[in-house]
Amino acid sequence: MEQKLKVLRIIHLALIGQALFAYFFLGEIDKLGFLDFKEVEGPAYMMLFIPIGAVFASDFLYKNLLKKVDRNSTTDHKVQHYMVACILRWAVIEGPIFFLLFLEDFILVGLMLIGYLAFIGPSKDKMEQDIESVNF
Question: Which keywords appear in this protein's UniProt record, sorted alphabetically (predicted)?
Fold first, then answer.
């Protein structure tokens, strides 16, 4: 089990690393130009629904996948379901991260999504807690 969680942590760190790499080189965050707040026009505010929707959709998908785990199943089976749920959750968040990279006005929102992605990292305690909380 620890070996599988270690692989999942490596995948998680790789996703965060490649997103930060892309933001550093493509988004040019090293120049801190994203901190120059510009006035955002009316329809551009609709773009904020993309990351907000991604966070809620990823959480919904994650919880629904964990609900399918049987409480009495083996630990190995639980870890497999947890791995699938985590990877799908991260994939749903990763899409808007790269979409927002190409919208200069929303690079800061993309960086916030990367922070959220880093915050929801995998661990054994979190796996047990999340499986128990959705299967009470």
Answer: Membrane, Transmembrane, Transmembrane helix
